Amino acid sequence: MRTFSLALAGGAVFLVQSLSATDFREVSLHKNITELEPLKGIILWRTTPENTLNAYQSSIALEYSYCLPCEVVTGKIGDKIQYNWSAFEALLNDIASRGHQAVIRFRYEYPGESGKITGVASCTQNVAGATAVPLYIKNGDYGYEETYSENPNNDGNTYYADWRNTELQWFTKQFYADFAAKYDNDSRIAFFQVGFGHWSEYHIYGTPLNLGVNFPSKAYQKEFLQHIASLFSETPWSISKDVASSDYTSMLADPDLLKLNFGIFDDSFMHENHDGYNTWCWNALGENRWKTAPGGGEISYYEYPYDQWNFLNPTGMYGRTWEEEIARLHISYMVANDAVNGSIATPNRVKEASLAAGYKFEIVKYQVSDTEARISVKNKGVAPLYHNAYITVKGVRSAASLKGLLPNETKEYSVIGLQIAGNEIPELTITSDKLPAGKIIPYCADLQGTTTSIFQAETLSFITQTENKLSFAGEKYTVNIVNLQGKILLSTKEKSVDLTKIPAGCYFVSYLSENGQREVKKIIKK
To answer: CA 226 to CA 298: how far, in whole Å?
Structure first.
């Protein structure tokens, strides 16, 4: 049912069109998810042989890389760090060239020969276990002095950053501030991991721990982690499960740290005794943390290569299957680089495992009028999506994001400011600014459309125009005034809006109460 009225307000003529619920019709929509969704799944290292990356290109959406602060830092002038990001840009572009996104972790310590840095003039080169602390600190007049451990935990010779040094402390915080300012919104980066110690995994096993010397003091760690939390709004960040250890941090004893919205990465996922210390860490850091921050990590190397080669066995490993474990801990992503060297992790099995992780969206309702679309979305996955993404109809996005929609939860999204003809079936997509160019998020749907209304007419109007203002009835509602491009110009919970504040043009006034009462009016100001 549609009603029209003319009103005179301040010398301007308004045409008001009320759209009742009878104007909505069901839209036919049939979709299957055949392509892996972005921002989730099994991860291979960026340094994996090219032929392997190509063979698994459609089986994965993410690639992992360690990164070196010394590789991008060329010096310091005054209080400004000097950067050359070309190597990092090349890394991101290389990953993006395969249609993938990066999961990155900067590190200082990397034990043994594998940690030897070569071909990077701005770093300490050709020394096993050398730190990636920038040379301007090592060679400058800062009193910087590293410590050394010979073959700790049989991982190889290791040098340790000097956490007594105030320049290193300042640099580390400023480096991440500069990095976040440049890359937080970059669609080439999906997830960001941070930490201290060996591989930035929050431990230095085999080396005596000396807080404030070869590992940051607990006070500095708190300062640093709160700093990191203030920097990243678009890229989810995570720290090792080992942050739960009281030997290294005061995390579990400090409510201020526990309330930070960090995710968890588990660097020995699915090893034989994972139900012990690892699971204790996950639970201690917050059994509901997964609802707002991602869970990820790396498949265990404890029994090598057995763990890597067998974790995807459909019959299970150590009495557990991949699908069971990711559902239990709500896993979104997992590095499993050596799995592809075994016989089980075929491209098809890796794709299947990747599809099982993280979020999975189903459209369970799609209704349109000539100006609005209402879409209900269910998350059929094991975890939420941790990035902003939007229901998009004819190029217009919903105001609300799909970020945080929990498993088995269904939520309705509205897209207003549309122009939809008769029996038109408007294209529905899920879009995000955190996806590579041209990428959208796949979804599934099995909806039968109708050409007649499935609602009874509603006679109650919640929006009333009198002279130069709009008044609103009811309680606990939100009213949005939206232009034809779908941009919200004004949002209010007040009882009225002064129309003289609205410039000439065509607008939609959308009313939605907490108990689901809706109304939309189209206003044309001449």
So the answer is: 25
